[in-house]
Write a structure and sequence with these properties.
The complex is a heterotrimer.
Chain A (H helix, E strand, L loop, with lengths): L1 H14 L10 E8 L6 H20 L7 E8 L4 H13 L5 E3 L4 H13 L4 E3 L6 H4 L4 E3 L4 H15 L4 E7 L3 H17 L2 E8 L7 H9 L4 E3 L4 H13 L6 E3 L7 H6 L7 E4 L8 H14 L5 H20 L4 H9 L4 E3 L2 E5 L5 E2 L2 E7 L2 E8 L5
Parallel strand pairs in A: 1-2, 1-3, 3-4, 4-5, 6-7, 6-8, 8-9, 9-10
Antiparallel strand pairs in A: 10-14, 11-12, 12-13, 14-15
Helix pairs in contact in A: 2-12, 3-4, 6-7, 12-13
Chain B lengths: L1 H31 L6 H19 L6 H27 L7 H23 L4 E2 L8 E4 L2 E4 H23 L1 H11 L1 H6 L4 H26 L2 E2 L3 H16 L4 H22 L4 H15 L14
Antiparallel strand pairs in B: 1-4, 2-3
Chain C lengths: L1 H21 L10 H26 L7 H18 L1 H7 L5 H31 L4 H20 L10 E2 L7 H19 L2 H11 L1 H6 L4 H27 L1 E2 L6 H14 L4 H17 L4 H18 L31
Antiparallel strand pairs in C: 1-2
Helix pairs in contact in C: 1-7, 2-7, 2-10, 2-11, 2-12, 3-5, 3-6, 3-10, 4-5, 5-10, 7-10, 8-10, 11-12
The chains are: A alpha/beta, B mainly alpha, C mainly alpha.
């Protein structure tokens, strides 16, 4: 009996440290991401960049004279955990703004809570259009699926002059599903034909069955809007099966590990991205060098976007002259031509980022810049 | 038609992997009546051991000898891991209720997965090329040397295992223990030792599967054992749990049907297929294809 | 009569607690929404744990597909409230807003529960013919199949998840249903039907020999259990206002099993305790983010070795307070022949 009382006391004690708020001369900012679980690399990449961004900002004097303190919570790659993490950050740590998430499903779980509490939320990389539709406190610094899919369709139609394309998408991943839906629409709109459609699940490692079917339909190219973790293997197995046509993809391909997995199978493949590591612009190179020095890895697109999200938030707070929710929200909505690492960012009426996409071609381990596609209307 | 044969080849090489893992499940279930949920994670550990070993050995060109060393090394390490798991997690609860055993197995599995994420990092790692590559084109069907290696090595290992179980004294002891643990004990067989050997063998085979998969599909990650483990378990049940050739048959069948359904019907239900087959088998012929109907005694 | 008084008392207490926690009772006093969320999620866990214990603990059937029924309840109720919510509320438009919302909640929960019960029937009838480990794997399989099917239905969002439900569930409703679940399961267990279930658990063949229609009993308890899981799912959906199939994988089923095993199979109090402990521990270990699951699984293995009966074994809360003659705990396992 005594041991049970002790156990209960111990458990109660564990909960106490959860109540922590920022000190008076600090600005508490919340970050939630998948530091563990199936998409842990995405959360960790983003987190690395956000931490680095605020270290730099704090070293230069902070925001409005105060240092920014980031409270990070892990959502274990689960949507309901994202909701709990965000609730904790808002109620226990009293954060004034929220950064997160990469995955649209987790952003969708957390956004209603931020909206209800009038805490501005910036998603660095969720591309599903519905995320920012939750409310006027929800923003994102990346482009959305319809635009990126259009870029993919242009790569196929205008750059590669393909008329018949197959699609191989990830059925378990809303990012991939969204992209392939819009790609299909746009490509057919150009006059192209989708000759085969196959799908796989995030985490699969054998795609031969789907690729064999695709091969029998004789496509001129394959659109693979998935994450690099599967794309590399898909490319490799496609070549092993004798498929020689180019593969096209989106920013989910961006990772230094892509070449490691896919190797030569990726030569001559194209993808759309937010930025190019080889972009000679000083801002990008400074970021890449600093990140490499600190973390011993080349930053991927998620890191770059996390970096921009963190800095746009700081910039908005400075422009608003305050950390109050409504003022920061208004400042964020008014962001125009912010010089980000991932491009010049303007936030539009739908609270999405209007920025160009770059098209990259893979050649011998390098992502070679091909062209830039501006969003229509700019 | 070539597409069909290509899919068949795809299915066989996938199925061989399932078969190797299924063997471990079936042997352990045979002696302990335990579904070793952690078995899939041993497969994962085998892949990682192979990864680290091959990086140590690296420097020169991929060679057949090097590949062999890596595989044997991984098998040895995982055999030890298997014995440790049995000794510290399963033996204390051997006499307990079945659900307790199941929970313990789940706990061990979760422990290995999460520790692996912590120690190795959650991001996938990529197996370096181990054996020299060559592709074969047979009547329009493409076979990579890795696929051939997988099928060949799996076959060899299964034959060796069958020989061991049928023709050696230890193998006979294993069969005795799987018939009736207490009677075997009364006959003077050291059941603890036999059970440890069973675990060691099963884990070694899973490790071999892990290295083979690493060679075939160079991506490995800490959670790769979950779904492969489950499907391999289904394969074991399909073939008749406790039955060694059954596990092989089950593995090949599951691999092939999975590939066929994904290719010709729809890939969205890929994971559900294995379970669907399982349910059908258990409803229509619960003892599996090669198993014998077990009469439950009172 | 006593039961009615007790029921009303519980409802009143819950209303007061809810008001207290959300700041409506004592001005200036409210607990942090974070703690409220933890407690609410714990309440949903209680419903899941107690309902699963009916099958696993009292009837002795291993089922690890509970998350599938929760998913059905969640998606059906969410879909209904998003698509037909306004029309349903319009049916009782004469009532005040809060009553309308309560009405909507009850309707969608009922729908979710019925669908989950039907699914339970469809799964249970073929599966419950199997024994032990086979049943476990088959239920696991069904749970995954259900999840994969839902993932591929575009009308409920598919891979994007389903969101936009109104927040109909709160602390009061969740705990009301938790109390109801506990009451229902307790009544079942203490009835002759329940004693038959225990008999089936202890020795199924002997029960058959005594003339019990074991399949019928097993299926009924399975269906009831699934319906309750469906209610838990509906509450979950209307509390978080967003659902995704990733919340209903077999990992979730494992979590519920862990809860009832920690608390003690065959003990309702144990399930409640296990559910609360589980969420307390997971939140308490939040500071150790990456070590959290490692520690948890280690804890689980150690617990199974040291105290496999769980904390309470077969005992209930009232067994501590007064002695009564009840179904004896099973004798320690003898050497099996």
């Amino acid at each position: 009996m005594k041991s049970r009382v002790l156990l209960a006391a111990l458990l109660a004690a564990l909960l106490v440290p959860a109540c922590r708020r920022g000190g008076g001369d600090e600005i508490p900012v919340g970050e939630y991401g998948s530091l563990t679980g199936t998409t842990a690399t995405f959360g960790q990449s983003t987190n690395n960049a956000i931490q680095m961004a605020y270290e730099e900002i704090n070293a230069a004097g902070g925001v409005l004279g105060k240092k920014v303190r980031v409270f990070v919570e892990d959502d274990q790659s689960k949507p309901e955990e994202a909701a709990t993490a965000v609730t904790k950050l808002i109620n226990q740590n009293h954060v004034v703004a929220m950064l997160g998430e990469v995955s649209s499903s987790r952003s969708l779980a957390a956004a209603p809570i931020c909206q209800a509490n009038h805490v501005p939320m910036i998603s660095p990389s969720s591309t599903n259009p519905r995320v920012t539709q939750v409310g006027d406190y929800i923003f994102r610094v990346c482009f959305i699926d319809p635009f990126q899919a259009e870029v993919g369709a242009r790569i196929a139609w205008e750059i590669l002059h393909l008329k018949k394309v197959a699609i191989l998408s990830d059925v378990r991943n809303d990012y991939s599903v969204g992209l392939q839906t819009f790609f299909r629409q746009t490509f057919k709109g150009f006059g192209g034909e989708i000759v085969a459609e196959q799908s796989y699940s995030e985490g699969d490692s054998d795609f031969r069955a789907q690729l064999t079917q695709i091969k029998s339909a004789n496509p001129e190219g394959i659109y693979v809007p998935g994450y690099y973790t599967e794309v590399g293997t898909i490319a490799r197995q496609a070549r092993e099966l004798g498929i020689t046509v180019p593969l096209i993809g989106g920013d989910g391909w961006d990772s230094p590990r892509l070449w490691e997995i896919g190797g030569e199978a990726l030569n001559g493949c194209y993808f759309s991205n937010h930025y190019s590591v080889d972009d000679p612009s000083p801002a990008v190179q400074k970021f890449v060098t600093a990140y490499k020095a600190k973390y011993n890895q080349v930053p991927d697109a998620l890191a770059a976007l996390g970096y921009d999200a963190a800095r746009i938030l700081a910039d908005a707070m400075t422009r608003a002259g305050s950390t109050k929710g409504e003022k920061v929200r208004d400042a964020l909505a008014a962001t125009k031509d912010f010089p980000g690492v991932t491009g010049t960012i303007t936030i539009n009426k739908e609270r999405n980022a209007v920025k160009p996409a770059v098209v990259l071609r893979i050649e011998n381990g390098k992502f070679v810049y091909v062209t830039t596609v501006k969003p229509t209307g700019t | 038609m070539t597409t069909f044969f290509q899919q068949l080849v795809n299915g066989l090489s996938l199925g061989s992997i399932y078969a190797l893992i299924a063997l471990g499940y079936t042997m352990v279930y045979g002696v302990l009546r335990l579904i070793n949920f952690a078995h899939g994670d041993v497969y994962m550990l085998g892949a990682y051991t192979g990864y680290y070993l091959s990086r140590k050995l690296k420097g020169d060109d991929p060679s057949l000898g090097g590949a062999l060393v890596v595989m044997l090394g991984a098998m040895l390490v995982c055999a030890i891991v298997g014995v440790i798991i049995e000794r510290f997690a399963y033996r204390p609860v051997r006499r307990a209720a079945r659900l307790t055993l199941l929970i313990t197995a789940i706990g061990v599995s979760l422990f290995i997965e999460n520790s692996a994420q912590l120690v190795f990092g959650p991001d996938p790692k990529f197996f370096p090329s181990l054996a020299p590559r060559a592709d074969f084109l047979v009547g329009g069907v493409r076979l990579t040397s890795e696929q051939l290696t997988v099928i060949a090595v799996s076959f060899i290992l299964m034959v060796l295992l069958r020989f061991f179980i049928m023709k050696t004294r230890t193998g006979k002891a294993m069969r005795a223990v799987s018939f009736n643990l207490d009677a075997a004990k009364l006959m003077g067989i050291s059941t603890d030792r036999i059970i440890a050997i069973t675990f060691a063998l099963g884990s070694a085979l899973a490790a071999a599967a892990g290295v083979l998969i690493g060679m075939q599909i160079p991506k490995i990650d800490p959670l790769m054992g979950i779904i492969y483990g489950l499907k391999a378990f289904v394969a074991a049940v399909l073939g008749g749990i406790g039955n060694v050739p059954g596990a092989v048959l089950g593995g090949l069948l599951i691999g092939t049907s999975e590939v066929m359904v994904v290719g010709y019907l729809s890939s969205t239900y890929r994971d559900a297929i294995a379970f669907g087959i399982l349910i059908l088998v258990l409803l229509l012929r619960p003892q599996g294809i090669l198993g014998r109907a077990q009469k439950e005694k009172v | 009569m006593k039961a009615l008084v007790r029921a009303i008392a519980i409802v009143v207490v819950l209303i007061l607690l809810n008001a207290l926690f959300t700041g409506g009772l004592i001005p200036g006093f409210s607990i942090s929404p974070y703690f409220l969320q933890i407690m609410s999620l714990a309440g949903i866990n209680i419903i899941l744990a107690v309902s699963l214990n009916l099958i696993n603990g009292f009837t002795g059937q291993f089922s690890i597909g509970h998350a599938g029924f929760m998913a059905i309840g969640a998606y059906v109720s969410a879909f209904l409230s998003i698509t037909f919510g306004d029309r349903i509320q319009a049916l009782i438009s004469f009532a005040p807003e809060s009553v309308q919302k309560s009405g909507l909640l009850l309707v969608v929960l009922a729908a979710g529960a019925i669908c989950a019960a039907i699914a339970g029937f469809l799964v249970g009838v073929p599966s419950l013919r199997l024994r032990g480990d086979y049943l476990a794997i088959v239920t696991l399989g069904f749970g995954e199949i259900i999840r994969v099917f839902i993932l591929n239905i575009d009308a409920v969002g598919g891979a994007r998840g389903l969101g936009g439900m109104p927040r109909l569930a709160n602390f009061f409703w969740i705990y009301l249903f938790a109390a109801a679940t506990i009451a229902v399961v307790t009544r079942i267990v203490n009835s002759s039907f329940g004693r038959t279930l225990i008999a089936i658990r202890e020795d199924e063949i002997a029960a058959e020999a005594m003339g019990v229609n074991t399949t019928r009993h097993k299926v009924i308890s399975f269906v009831v259990s699934s319906a309750m899981a469906g209610i838990a799912g509906g509450l979950f959906a209307h509390y978080l206002m967003y659902v995704h199939t990733n919340s209903f994988t077999f990992i979730r089923s494992f979590e519920i099993i862990i809860m009832i095993v920690i608390g003690g199979l065959g003990s309702i109090t144990g399930s409640v305790l296990g559910a609360v402990l589980y969420i307390t521990l997971t939140e308490g270990l939040r500071g150790f983010a990456q070590y959290r699951m490692v520690l948890f699984s280690l804890l689980l293995v150690v617990l199974m070795i040291v105290r496999p009966g769980g904390i309470l074994g077969h005992r209930e809360l009232r067994d501590f307070f007064w002695r009564r003659h009840r179904v004896a705990a099973p004798p320690p396992p003898a050497v099996s022949g």
